[in-house]
Write a structure and sequence with these properties.
This protein is mainly α and 79 residues long. The protein has helices spanning 3-16, 21-38, 48-58, 70-74.
């Protein structure tokens, strides 16, 4: 499943759970930055080490709440 498709599934779930539009917008921004870095790759090709490296690089320029990707871990696609 592509990162963009995983996001669509996650966003639908979170809308049903009542997440605020602002929270979803922040998550959407996170995803766009992630896709800009990795491209819209198959989510199963990402591993924890790659994601941590990305967070270390991107975290230097972003506020802490923007470098968290709980939706990737909550969906269990990353080992």
């Amino acid at each position: 499943m592509l990162l963009s498709k995983a996001w669509e599934a996650f966003e639908s779930d979170k809308r049903i759970e009542g997440f605020s539009p602002q929270t979803l917008k922040a998550y959407r921004l996170q995803l766009s930055l992630l896709i800009e870095y990795f491209k819209d790759i198959e989510i199963t090709t990402l591993d924890t080490i790659q994601l941590k490296e990305y967070l270390a690089i991107s975290g230097k320029h972003l506020k802490p709440f923007l470098v968290k990707f709980p939706w990737l871990f909550n969906q269990k696609p990353i080992n």
